[in-house]
């Protein structure tokens, strides 16, 4: 799947989604009535197309993008356990760097922890295939969206 197809899937499948586009990257927020102040919106997925914010995935390759999805701690741990992840968002992992993980963050069509935000239970996948999208990514997106809705409702109930 490409970025446009994924963006279309997210906006057509989930209600109340706002998309902000900056520098070619897409940020998906739950914003049910379109009037939620920016500091109360809950981002649940992003599509990143360049290495501006980190260089782990080598997104400067032609047609390569990374889909990032914020999932629950339980789902994250069921997928990845508690492996160490790189901690410096501005560094590039090196083969002799003992702080880097066992993941090849440049690999296509592989669900893995986000190289920077994995510690916050974000996952990523570069260029998911149609099959991977249907069998795995759709489920992760649904969980992330439902978490954003729950956070919004909890915050709204306190207001």
UniProtKB/TrEMBL annotation:
It comes from Reticulibacter mediterranei. It holds the Pfam family DUF6194. This is DUF6194 domain-containing protein. Residues 1-154 form the DUF6194 domain. InterPro entries: DUF6194 (IPR045676).
């Amino acid at each position: 799947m490409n970025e446009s197809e994924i963006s279309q899937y997210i906006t057509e499948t989930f209600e109340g989604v706002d998309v902000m586009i900056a520098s070619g990257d897409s940020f998906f927020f739950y914003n049910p009535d379109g009037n939620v102040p920016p500091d109360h919106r809950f981002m649940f997925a992003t599509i990143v197309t360049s290495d501006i914010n980190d260089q782990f995935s080598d997104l400067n390759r032609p047609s390569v993008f990374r889909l990032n999805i914020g999932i629950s701690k339980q789902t994250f741990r069921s997928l990845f356990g508690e492996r160490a992840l790189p901690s410096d968002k501005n560094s590039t992992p090196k083969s002799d760097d003992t702080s880097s993980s066992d993941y090849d963050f440049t690999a296509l069509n592989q669900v893995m922890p986000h190289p920077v935000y994995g510690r916050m239970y974000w996952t990523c996948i570069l260029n998911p295939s149609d099959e991977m999208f249907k069998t795995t990514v759709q489920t992760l997106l649904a969980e992330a969206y439902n978490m954003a809705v729950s956070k919004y409702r909890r915050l709204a109930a306190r207001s």
